Amino acid sequence: xxxxxxxxxxxxxxxxxxxxxxxxxxxxxxxxxxxxxxxxxxxxxxxxxxxxxxxxxxxxxxxxxxxxxxxxxxxxxxxxxxxxxxxxxxxxxxxxxxxxxxxxxxxxxxxxxxxxxxxxxxxxxxxxxxxxxxxxxxxxxxxxxxxxxxxxxxxxxxxxxxxxxxxxxxxxxxxxxxxxxxxxxxxxxxxxxxxxxxxxxxxxxxxxxxxxxxxxxxxxxxxxxxxxxxxxxxxxxxxxxxxxxxxxxxxxxxxxxxxxxxxxxxxxxxxxxxxxxxxxxxxxxxxxxxxxxxxxxxxxxxxxxxxxxxxxxxxxxxxxxxxxxxxxxxxxxxxxxxxxxx
Length: 342
Fold this sequence. Notes:
By secondary structure, the chain is α/β, with parallel strands linked by helices.
């Protein structure tokens, strides 16, 4: 059965198409009885607005592009859920692209999003992205852009991210208070914004408790197990008594390497991650981690972008929204001599 149109409704009710259109938009210009007749008829015959016609009329696609490093990453899948929920409630559709941690793939996916006439772009920078000139060019062409999670100071944009500094401070403080002093920090590539923020939180906690900062305990790694294992083995030469990993994927690689080496956790070495992967409490031992509010970050980022698109918000200067994190202590960072939780 063909979908009915505004013209069909107008013909059936002996109304003008403009009256039907305004009634469906709940315009104050149309009296309540006419609105009721139009809405009831539209619902009875399952009327749905034509998105192509709407986009031509409004000069908008009502579609937003979302670029993430990897959908399979639980953090980004949760953020996408938040983005999609807000987009749907505001009448927008979402197209999702993956950069696979590649700058070249990011360039390509951004070009694809623009080619599809998206109204705006939500993007978390890839692990390989240090140059954001491709996004600056789009901003100069008046495309609304909001960065989330991984952001750049080189771009005048609204940014939504976790409070990485406070989260890293809390993780490091917890390790120090549990008696650790040789705390290794395993970080993602150094030019990514969240890397610097988490490193700063780590250093601030050391300074607060008078623990010397040792650059020999800092290493940067890509995300795969093959990348993490040699980095952890190298750090073990520095005799650490704890590892603070700046991401749960790094922490999982660290856990696997420590187990492979037969190093007891937490008896010999403590371990804390960052993100709170869904399997963290199922690991052996259950892994302590800093939880990021991924869903909330996605929702806030989507609201910011749609407000920019609809002109409800003006970007007079870059704005940074930092969402609170939460420290979750599990067995992997329990002080030696403390009984395991039941």
